């Protein structure tokens, strides 16, 4: 391996993106269950044989490939990376065990340090070409359940849109029917404010009314005598 590390295409690495979920990945338990025996650097343990392919995603035909380097020193540019497009899921409990059980220090070191956040920072492309085994147009194939859900969603959307359009048309027709009907209501009369109305009423009474006393005191015409 020391000789292969110095060659431009001496090593091949399979990369898998891991996400967390609720279900436990039983294939990863073949490794996680033995981590407690190699908690510190330079420790070794033998585990029973198992199918390594069970750790990989189901779809192995969709992947990215590029010439890269080792992720640890001396970081030789001698690795052909193959990164699968499909992700693999493990449970949150499995991830927590990986993050809290391993140490970067040796067993006899006074200052022990957990093996956390030891990822390498992203590197510049440096004119590398990244190849893909699939085109951007070839999306993920949908399962029958996903297709059924999409069809039902589209149908419900169409029904909802039809109901809204029908309601709008019905409202417009109802408004138009009221507009064409003749109006039999009398013309509105102008309203007067309270003080002005009382003043006008008072003036009418003053002009049109004559007291009984004035009527009695009115003198009758006297007969004229001839000279």
UniProtKB/TrEMBL annotation:
SMART domains: Carb_anhydrase (SM01057)
One Pfam family matching this protein: Carb_anhydrase
A single GO molecular function term of this UniProt record: carbonate dehydratase activity
GO cellular component: plasma membrane
Domain of life: Eukaryota
SUPFAM superfamilies: Carbonic anhydrase
Location of the region described as Disordered in the Swiss-Prot/TrEMBL record: 179-227
Domain Alpha-carbonic anhydrase, chain residue ranges per copy: 1-134
The keyword ATP-binding is assigned to this record: no
Record-annotated membrane-spanning stretches: 147-169
Keyword field: Membrane, Transmembrane, Transmembrane helix
Ranges annotated as biased composition (Basic and acidic residues): 193-204
Similarity comment: Belongs to the alpha-carbonic anhydrase family.
Stated name of the protein: Alpha-carbonic anhydrase domain-containing protein
Source organism of the structure: Etheostoma spectabile
